[in-house]
From TrEMBL, chains A, B:
This is Thyroid hormone responsive. It comes from the Eukaryota. It is found in: Cytoplasm; Nucleus. Keywords: Cytoplasm, Nucleus. Belongs to the SPOT14 family. InterPro entries: Lipogen_MT_Stabilize_sf, Spot_14. One of its GO terms (cellular component) is nucleus. Coiled coil: none annotated. Gene3D superfamilies: 6.10.140.1610. One of its GO terms (biological process) is regulation of lipid biosynthetic process.
Length: 139, 139
């Protein structure tokens, strides 16, 4: 069990999750006045409708990135969550595609998690840099 | 960083991955003669076409479960893999659904990973019990 733990500590899924958590901590420590981000339009591609809260301004982005970090760090909640919501609309839509092969499904979700965490880490770093711009400090 | 590590070690994604790895180790230690599983039809619902190798017999299931464990334990390979294959047919199909909101995407993949790992752990335990049946030992 000890050697299994050592393996997992080295694997990159853990490093990816930890990297995101670390980027959000940096963001929090840098952004001492989050309210300065209010009403600053987000030019970052969030790929979402302008009516959604997380797309409105940099302050909304800041809150969303923190909320996701909390989910990353307390994914015990998600485990219960998945039991209750195992048949969401999204899963329903994907059933014909994904129920075919558990190995493909595993690779698909692992790859997807890497991809989205990497994307969110970049967004967090970009938001931190924008705050520095706003307060006129070179990063 | 230390406290972040402590948090991740406790979170259930890690426990889920470790639980699967542990189930496969038990299976390997129990199944001393994997060849006894050859040509034993799999009545486990693998949700796949009978022509796929992993559905043919219990021996194929055994090999697949071990291969997935190896991927779980060395997901560094997958990180490179995702860069090269970020636009697979599967991702292409899902683009209109999933490009809308990174938080939803994150929750979807995390929940999906829990679900598939939980499923694979059960399959591994079930295969181990079947082997014990074959050799006539009560588990």
């Amino acid at each position: 069990m000890q050697s299994a733990e050592a393996k997992f500590n080295k694997n990159s899924l853990l490093l990816t999750l930890r990297g995101y958590s670390s980027a959000v901590s940096d963001m929090e420590q840098t952004i001492l006045l989050p309210s300065l981000l209010r009403d600053v339009p987000s030019d970052e591609a969030w790929d979402c409708e302008a009516t959604e809260e997380s797309c409105r301004d940099l302050y909304s982005n800041y809150l969303t990135l923190k909320a996701i970090r909390n989910t990353v760090e307390s994914s015990l909640i998600l485990l219960d969550d998945h039991k209750a919501k195992s048949h969401t609309a999204l899963n329903k839509t994907l059933e014909p595609l994904l129920d075919t092969d558990p190995e493909t499904l595993f690779r698909f979700h692992l790859r997807g998690l890497f991809s989205v965490m990497s994307d969110l880490t970049k967004k967090t770093q970009s938001l931190t840099v924008k705050y520095m711009d706003i307060i006129g400090v070179a990063y």
